[in-house]
Amino acid sequence: MISIAMHFCDTHIHLVAAGTKEKADVWVESAAAAGIDCLIQPGVRIGDWDAMVSLAQRHPSVYAAPGIHPMCADQWDDEAARQLKELTCHPKVVAIGEIGLDAVVGPAQEVQERALRAQLQIALDHDLPVLLHCRQKKGALLAILRELDIGRHIGGVWHGFSGSLPFARELVDLGFVIGVGPVLLRHNARKLIEVVAALPTSSFVVETDLPDMARTPEELINVAKKIAEIKSLSLYGVARVTTENTLKLVSVPHRMPAPGRRTAVE
C-alpha cells in the first residue's frame, strides 16, 4: 500500500439541508480526513443562504453557491434578487445554484423560468458559473442556456447528470461540465458509465448531492473509484483532474492537503 496525498472537490453538497444542519461541522471534518478539501454548497431556498455562508466562513474548505431551486421558484421576488446580488460580492460565494427547471416538483413552468432567467442574469452580471438542476425539462433549459450563451460566458455544471452520451457531448460543446455523482454507482447506470468512458476527463467534475444521493461526504471517494475503474486511471489521477476541472470553473483557492494528512491508495 502506498499513501499519496489527494485533493478532491465536491461540487454539489447540501451541508445545511433541513434536518442535517447539526451535522454540518462534523461532515466538513470527516470530508477533510478523506482528502475532500473543497466543498461547494448549492442553495435550494432563500432561508438556506445565511447558514451556507456562515458555514463557509467557519471553514476554509467550504464555499457557497446561493440560488433558488426550481421547486422553490415562487420565492423569487425583488427582495430575493437584492439579497442574491449582495451575496455575489462575498468572497466565499463562488457560483449561483442550484437553478434550473423541474417538471416534477415546484410551481408552474412560467414561474420557474422567470426565477431561472433572473438568476442567470445575475450570474452573468457578476461573472459567476452556475450549478444547473434539470428534471424532464432539458429541451426548455437548453434553449434558455443557448439563448443567453451561458456556457461560453460563465460556464457551469449540469448537476446529477444521468443522460445520454449525445446529450453529454452537446453540453460539453456548449461550455458546460458534467456533474458525476452517486448515480454512477447504481446497478443500472449504463448510460452514465458510457458517458464517463467516452468523454475526456476534462468534461466532468464529481459530486455527492448529500444528503439526497449520499449519506456521508466520503461517498465521493466511491464515485471517484468508479471513475478510476472506468477510465483506467489511479484514484490520485481522478482526484487531480476533477479538482483541476473545478478550479477552472470556480474561483477557489487551490489548498493542498495539510502536511502529514495522507489518503491511503491501494
Layout of helices and strands:
Layout: E1 2-4, E2 8-10, H1 24-33, E3 36-42, H2 49-58, E4 62-65, H3 78-87, E5 96-102, H4 109-125, E6 130-135, H5 138-148, H6 150-153, E7 156-158, H7 165-174, E8 176-180, H8 190-198, E9 204-206, H9 219-231, H10 235-249, E10 263-265
Helix pairs in contact: 9-10
Keywords: Hydrolase, Metal-binding
Pfam families: TatD_DNase
Family: Belongs to the metallo-dependent hydrolases superfamily. TatD-type hydrolase family.
Q: Based on helices, strands and strand pairing, what is the structural class? A: alpha/beta
What fold name goes in the CATH topology slot?
TIM Barrel
Q: Termini, distance in Å?
A: 5 Å
What is the string of SSEs from the N terminus onward?
EEHEHEHEHEHHEHEHEHHE
Q: Strand order of the main beta sheet, please?
A: 5-6-7-8-9
What helical percentage do the residues reach? 40-55%
Give the strand tally. 10
Note the overall shape. Answer: globular
Mean pLDDT: 92
GO cellular component, one term: cytosol
Protein name: TatD family hydrolase
Family: Belongs to the metallo-dependent hydrolases superfamily. TatD-type hydrolase family.
Keywords: Hydrolase, Metal-binding
Quick description:
It comes from Pelovirga terrestris. A divalent metal cation 2 binds at residues 133, 159. Helix content is 41%, strand content 17%.
